[in-house]
Design a protein that fits this description.
DNA-binding; about 200 residues; mainly alpha
């Protein structure tokens, strides 16, 4: 049965999968999570609801994987500049200002929904939060190994909080979308000093 299920889930080509994810992201920006329906996704992509449920199980997993899809494709372990500052700057530069603005819009669309929907929260933790936390830990461990930061610095546990917080606060406080310039300045002024890391390479 497992082999049959796997075969059924693998019928969608990567190109078709990307098309579906793009449609989901467009709908999220247009109507938000609560108003997004599998019917709407099926209509937008000329798919059957049965195919969508067979491939993703439900709306929560489909949305989480779509959001994960739109993140820059380069893996964290492909970036190793020799310094923590260089790594964090390189990770930031993977998204241009337009992509950052779109990401900020998605965050606003999903912020309340994530905490009001256990299925969505579970899917986000599995497909987004936990993988990114693991990747950031790799970046930090390299910095520890190089002697840039101390392994016992309590701020290490809050790197993701700092990065997400600065990204979200840009719109909330300044009423402007996050940009590369803003995020890079934030890393140098807030994140690196908190970690005790050099601000200059």
């Amino acid at each position: 049965m497992t082999e049959v299920a796997t075969a059924r889930r693998s019928r969608i080509t990567p190109e078709r999968e990307a098309e579906l994810y793009e449609a989901v992201l467009d709908l999220l920006r247009e109507v938000g999570y609560d108003a997004l329906t599998m019917d709407a996704v099926a209509a937008r992509t000329k798919s059957s609801k049965a195919t969508l449920y067979r491939q993703w199980g439900g709306k929560a997993e489909l949305v989480a994987k779509a959001v994960r899809y739109q993140k820059p494709s380069a893996a964290f372990d492909e970036i190793d500049t020799g310094s923590l500052r260089g790594d964090l700057h390189a990770l930031t530069m993977r998204s241009d200002d337009c992509e950052m603005e779109q990401n900020a819009g998605l965050m606003r669309a999903l912020a309340m929904a994530v905490h009001g929907n256990p299925d969505l929260l579970k899917a986000f933790k599995e497909h987004l939060i936990e993988p990114e936390m693991a990747q950031f830990r790799q970046v930090l461990q390299r910095a520890v190994d190089r002697g840039e930061i101390r392994a016992d610095n309590p701020a290490i546990e809050f790197l993701m909080h700092m990065m997400i917080g600065g990204f979200a606060a840009r719109t909330l406080i300044d009423e402007q979308p996050p940009t590369q310039t803003f995020v890079l300045s934030y890393i140098d002024a807030v994140v690196l000093p908190a970690l005790g890391a050099p601000v200059t390479c």
